[in-house]
């Protein structure tokens, strides 16, 4: 199997985490290809970025509203995308232990939109910023939304850090937000403002979910409607069969109809039983996490949680 087939299979069968990383890397590559091509023309290479980056001016944003989405998937600096994708992979993996891929995508989008909205609001309303025009690019706000949501859901889950050893997620999130807050007046003030917007989004999501409210439902309903619409449009319609052919199929298949239906019903019942068992197992483990935290799970329970959550998704 070639590398193209391997990447294609990971996209088709991988989780939303894998797909988000793929999209970010694809944007990174396309931006550099576009700027490389523009260097051989009279157009400045930076021109390509202005169609992707989010402007701080609402008046300019109205002329290119798509940038509220495109900016959160694009990075231009190598270290920028490397750092963001590592954070997304590390915290996204923990996020998916007890949450779904659909919610991850919605939270990623929510974090990016709220981070971008706060960026524009501050540059428009705060006197220290509204005299300048700035541009925002990068998935940091979206990634930090997932980071803070994961930290709120699993505050005592520990990860090993170089030079520091095991550190609880809550401290990583608190330190990250503090760094962004005290860096607002720096050279990348707009970026840190967006980070804070993304962080607050993640906290709101996790707190609401703990109280039984899923704020990603509207997005997921819209996404499901759109996917179903595309499937109906793109799926080929079955050709109409003549009455003679239909009668022939009915007569030839009628004798074996009962035999064919029995295995199917048994398979359906078996699948339903498996799904009920998986849901019961997941509920039992999630109850234990709520009472004692993720760190209280045994190794076997963590493995079961991972396996069951993958099957349910």
Describe this structure in words.
The chain crosses the membrane at residues 21-41, 78-98, 105-126, 132-152, 159-184, 190-209. By secondary structure, the protein is mostly helical. It has two domains: 3-220, Rhomboid-like fold; 236-312. The protein is built from 14 helices and four strands. The chain has helices spanning 3-13, 16-38, 47-50, 58-63, 67-70, 78-98, 101-125, 140-153, 169-182, 189-210, 217-234, 243-254, 257-292, 299-312; strands spanning 54-55, 135-136, 158-161, 165-168. The strands form two sheets. Strands 1-2 form a two-stranded antiparallel ribbon. A two-stranded antiparallel ribbon has the order 3-4. A hairpin with a 3-residue loop joins strand 3 and strand 4 (165-168). Helix 13 packs across helix 14 (299-312). The longest helix has 36 residues, at 257-292.
List the helices and strands and how they pair.
Blueprint: H1 3-13, H2 16-38, H3 47-50, E1 54-55, H4 58-63, H5 67-70, H6 78-98, H7 101-125, E2 135-136, H8 140-153, E3 158-161, E4 165-168, H9 169-182, H10 189-210, H11 217-234, H12 243-254, H13 257-292, H14 299-312
Antiparallel strand pairs: 1-2, 3-4
GO molecular function: serine-type endopeptidase activity
Transmembrane segments: 21-41, 78-98, 105-126, 132-152, 159-184, 190-209
Domain Peptidase S54 rhomboid: 64-209
Q: Short description, anyone?
A:
The protein has helices spanning 3-13, 16-38, 47-50, 58-63, 67-70, 78-98, 101-125, 140-153, 169-182, 189-210, 217-234, 243-254, 257-292, 299-312; strands at residues 54-55, 135-136, 158-161, 165-168. The chain is mainly α.
């Amino acid at each position: 199997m070639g590398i193209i087939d391997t990447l294609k299979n990971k996209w088709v069968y991988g989780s939303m985490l894998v797909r988000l990383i793929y999209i970010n890397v694809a944007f990174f590559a396309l931006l550099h290809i576009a700027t490389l091509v523009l260097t051989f023309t009279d157009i400045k290479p930076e021109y390509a970025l202005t169609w992707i980056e989010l402007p701080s001016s609402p008046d300019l944003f109205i002329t290119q509203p798509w940038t509220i989405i495109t900016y959160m998937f694009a990075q231009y600096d190598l270290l920028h995308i490397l750092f963001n994708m590592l954070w997304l992979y590390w915290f996204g993996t923990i996020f998916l232990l007890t949450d779904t891929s659909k919610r991850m995508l919605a939270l990623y989008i929510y974090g990016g939109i709220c981070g971008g909205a706060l960026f524009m609001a501050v540059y428009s309303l705060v006197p220290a910023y509204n005299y300048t025009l700035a541009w925002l690019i990068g998935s940091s706000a979206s990634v930090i939304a997932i980071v803070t949501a994961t930290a709120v859901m699993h505050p005592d889950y520990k990860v090993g850090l170089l030079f520091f050893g095991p550190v609880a997620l809550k401290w990583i999130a608190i330190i990250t937000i503090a760094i962004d807050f005290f860096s607002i007046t720096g050279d990348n003030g707009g970026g840190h403002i967006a980070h804070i917007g993304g962080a607050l989004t993640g906290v709101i999501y996790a707190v609401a979910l703990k109280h039984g409210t899923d704020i990603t439902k509207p997005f997921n309903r819209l996404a499901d409607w759109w996917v179903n619409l595309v499937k109906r449009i793109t799926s080929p319609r079955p050709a109409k069969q003549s009455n003679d052919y239909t009668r022939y199929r009915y007569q030839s298949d009628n004798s074996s109809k009962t035999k064919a239906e029995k295995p199917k019903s048994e398979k359906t019942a078996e699948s339903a039983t498996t799904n009920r068992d998986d849901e019961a197992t997941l509920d039992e483990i999630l109850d234990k996490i709520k009472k004692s935290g993720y760190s209280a799970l045994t190794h076997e329970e963590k493995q079961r949680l991972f396996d069951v959550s993958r099957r349910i998704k």
